[in-house]
Design goal:
The chain is an alpha+beta fold. The protein has helices at about 40-45, 50-55, 70-75, 80-90, 95-110, 115-120, 265-270, 270-280, and strands at about 30-35, 65-70, 130, 140-150, 165-175, 185-190, 210-215, 220-225, 230-235, 245-250.
Length: about 280
């Protein structure tokens, strides 16, 4: 007799999206509310690990600090539910990357026209390995539990910025705690007022304008192509004892996809106060 096949219950967050659903302004992205059926979302939310588990009982955490648990940590940790481990396994797999490229390969080619030649393969054929695991890979995928720690003074966990230049695709799945009544913590998308220029990976407020906000709402999802155009940030969050919770998705390359042009030394001097504001936790 054949063994019964147990159907996967893990939500596949890109599987039912069409390329026409991707928005191109201010840069290629997709956002959706109520992305997972409510009963399944509630099961996932109930199994989201505590702050103590994510920081491994570490006590020296600051206000509004990003702390995370990577796919490598999750897949080897039996405290995490089988449903979540299956979720992490799928969202670091070649099957998931096929959905990413089905939707975004055209946008990757527009932003990074030389990258396929540099890697030696079409985006759709890239070799995929979960980040932190051994193996030859053209792209390494990570999926992370993330919390922004309780806030003691109103602040942004990350001002306007682009993600690191070896990452070409990022996504967030918000899992807001129902106890969280604070304001802020939304994802803000920006457009450039001028040609891109950076302090490290941060943008000055004078150079960008806010054009769209994706609310920090339970069971909502947003993904985007990361490039010099993809400026985004987190709106300041009020004081609260409740962490901000989400899943972070990353596609990381062994090479740089782009190089953020830096502002000049004189400009850093002229705009010193704005530079300090932009850098936030990166200034030391």
């Amino acid at each position: 007799m054949f063994a019964a096949v147990v159907a996967s219950r893990t939500p596949k967050l890109l599987s039912d999206i069409q390329p026409s659903d991707v928005v191109t302004e201010p840069y290629a992205h997709y956002a959706r509310a109520d992305v997972v059926p409510a009963p399944l979302y509630e099961e996932l939310a109930a199994g989201f690990p505590s702050l103590a588990v994510i920081v491994n009982e570490r006590a020296d955490i600051g206000s509004n600090e990003a702390v995370r648990m990577t796919a490598k940590q999750v897949l080897g940790d039996r405290r995490i539910s089988p449903l979540w481990r299956e979720f992490f396994e799928y969202h670091t797999s070649a099957d998931y990357w096929r959905d990413v490229t089905r939707l975004f390969a055209t946008h990757f080619r527009r932003e990074f026209p030389d990258l396929e030649e540099k890697v030696g393969r079409a985006y759709e054929d890239w070799r995929v390995v979960p980040r932190g695991f051994a193996g030859e890979a053209d792209v390494r995928l990570d999926c992370q539990f993330v919390m922004n720690t309780p806030v003691t003074h109103k602040s942004s966990v990350k001002t306007a910025h682009v993600d690191l230049c070896d990452k070409i695709f990022s996504a967030l799945f918000y899992m807001r705690d129902p106890r969280d009544q604070s304001q802020g913590g939304d994802l803000d998308l920006y457009d450039w007022r001028r040609k891109p220029r950076f302090v490290k990976h941060r943008a000055l407020n004078r150079d960008v304008e806010l054009v769209k906000t994706v609310p920090y709402r339970a069971n909502s999802y947003v993904c985007f192509v990361n490039s010099a155009e993809a400026v985004h940030g987190v709106s300041p969050r009020d004081t609260t004892d409740v962490p901000r919770r989400y899943i972070n998705f990353i596609a990381e390359l062994p090479v740089k996809a782009f190089e953020p042009k830096q502002i000049g030394r004189l400009q850093r001097f002229w705009y010193a106060s704005e530079v300090d504001l932009a850098l936030g936790d990166d200034k030391y």
